[in-house]
What does this fold into?
Amino acid sequence: MSADIWSWSYTLEILPILANAAIVTIEATLISFVIALVLGLVLAVLRMSGAVIGWFASAFVELVRSTPLLIQIFFIFFVLPRFGITLDAFTAGIIALSLHYGCYCSEVYRAGLEAVPRGQWEACTALNFSSWNTFKNIILPQAIPPIVPALGNYLVALFKDTPLLSAIAVAELVQTAKNLGSENFRYNEPMTIVGLTFLVLSLVSAAGIRWLEQRLNRRSVR
Amino acid sequence: MSATTNHPMVRFEGVTKRYGALTVLDDLNLEVGRGEKVAIIGPSGSGKTTVLRMLMTLERIDGGVIWVDGEPMTHMQKNGQMVPAEPKHLRRVRSKIGMVFQHFNLFPHMTALANCTEAPMTVLGLPRREAEERAAELLNMVGLGDKKGHYPAQLSGGQQQRVAIARALAMRPKIMLFDEVTSALDPELCGEVLQVIRKLGSEHDLTMLMVTHQMGFAKEFADRVCFFYQGKICEQGEPKELFTAPKNERTQQFLRAVLEAV
It folds into this structure.
């Protein structure tokens, strides 16, 4: 291969830098996703509770789902300081990703929870379970396995949305590749490596989700 | 057991239930004695299942009071006044009642054994070993000692319903409610479930209310049969009397129709 198109020495030089950036990307993905999973469940429960707070939760979910993630990132990073909330770029990015995907996850949870037959709740009342135990021991374990694939899709989608954080200069993969490119006037290698990294990690996560799905299906024979 | 045993186990006092403009139960008054077995029959939409569901607190009542074991369940005394029960009161009184459903409602993600141990462990706080011993005993009683490790999906309808009976009994209720427990079963599986209920009736000191379409079983098993029609008890009495010489015209019509169908 001509060195004009691909330089192996340059590749070796930038690999460690990109590896560090990959860690930032993975951290941002995992932290955001865990928060999104919890937030999504809370939002789903609030919305199903039917109380006034449920209405607010619904409005919030609609607001977040109907506006671009990039705007939300900018809003949290550039606008919130106006109201005295100043966050570093990484934290702002995590919050934006968590909120955004938390709202999408809440829809998935809602579908999962609503799919559990009413008779299950009634059996729990008849057995005198508390609401909390009903939810935790009976409803949730039945609601989760069917929605694992849908939640997994959002994990991969969130992962692929982390490059948006480059807009507020978080040193994740794409931001780092862009910097390397502009410093060395060579974009081929960093962008290709970053693209491949996303490809490989996405495929690995998808395989992981499929494995989890099968495991859960085996456990709860229906 | 309380000192005064002369009060009825269950008492519906002027209980009314409405769904919007539709009155499902109208000023129901019904007393069920300790250890009494009452069969509730009637055409669909007559409110018979609602009676059980209200007693299990699955439905709110719109009027009247339900008493269980001598104390109000749907209401409680506060400063000498009867006020609607708080959840805590409801839970305490409800613990005396168990229910078996038409569609079993077993927990599909748990084995037969776990279905019977979950509530005793989380609600009553029994240690696992004790809960499992008790559950195994009950599964043996319903003839499923060898199916402990099976999931509901691996069991026949009749077997699932028997697990559901064991699950309800594991909470040591004083009152058992059976809501059309054989209606979702293939005819050849009804017998094994009814056999278990028969056994319960003869071996345990349980008060039982059952909604059923099995007239033969009601006749043979129940101490009293209540015929519901349009949200009211139209006629009640000993099974022999009610089935052989019904006084009310509606009862006669219903029984004729049911017997013709057989």
Remarks:
- The two ends of chain A are 55 Å apart (CA to CA).
- The mean pLDDT of chain A is 93.
- The domain at 8-219 of chain A is CATH 1.10.3720.10 (MetI-like fold).
- DSSP finds eight helices and no strands in chain A.
